[in-house]
Design goal:
The complex is a heterodimer of chains A (108) and B (119). By secondary structure, chain A is mostly beta strands. Chain A is 0% helix and 45% strand. Chain A has no helices and 9 strands. In chain A, the strands form 2 sheets. In chain A, strands 1, 3, 4, 7, 8 and 9 form a 6-stranded mixed sheet that branches. The radius of gyration of chain A is 13 Å and the shape is globular. The N and C termini of chain A lie far apart (36 Å). The model of chain A has no long low-confidence stretch (mean pLDDT 96). Chain B is built from no helices and 11 strands. In chain B, the strands form 2 sheets. In chain B, strands 2, 4, 5, 6, 9, 10 and 11 form a 7-stranded mixed sheet that branches. Chain B has a 4-stranded antiparallel sheet with strand order 1-3-8-7, with no helix packed on it. Classes of the chains: A mainly beta (108), B mainly beta (119). Chains A and B meet through strand 3, strand 7 and strand 8 of A and strand 5 and strand 10 of B.
Chain lengths: 108, 119
Amino acid sequence: SYVLTQPPSLSVAPGETARITCGGNNIGIKSVHWYQQKPGQAPVLVIYSDSDRPSAIPERFSGSNSGNTATLTISRVEAGAEADYYCQVWDSNSDHWVFGGGTKLTVL
Amino acid sequence: QVQLVESGGGLVKPGGSLNLSCAASGFTFSDYYMTWIRQAPGKGLEWVSHIGYGSDYTKYADSVKGRFTISRDNGKDSLYLQMNSLRADDTAVYYCARVSGSSLYLDYWGQGTLVTVSS
């Protein structure tokens, strides 16, 4: 089955740029989606189809996908961005949804 | 506005059963695939099952295949998950989510319902 690999944690200072990676075999040919989850809350879609952003999500959130790595970029990080972030793809071979293990973003 | 509200979680003994429900509102329920995602305490997200526009197309994760059954009632705008032969490792918050787009992303999620399997 298809595997997505994320770093378990990432720390950034306020105002800096956070880049959260999601690795997968030839992931560049798949559509990657990203979810933000704060403690005790349901996940929220922040990026879909590699780089599209739902209307309620700030422009500071962006995404890219190429080769074996997809990246969620959060510019000018604020304390409110502290959360767990999950990447996800649809694996057409198995007809399953696949999630990465999640990355805990800490704002210093 | 789109709302998904899960119910039916609780404490159950190993080997027991539970039936989860997800009430949808704010959109044409029958126009969307739906899915169940779970999250064990302190762990990541795990896809459990999804269902097509009717109940004729369903898929399950290997971890629940043969034990869980997903279904929907488009007349009641509701999604269900019948869980049988529950095990301790089924303990999790269960979320229902709406599937959107040709690339199949999950654009709306419920608040989740906790299932605890313990003796």
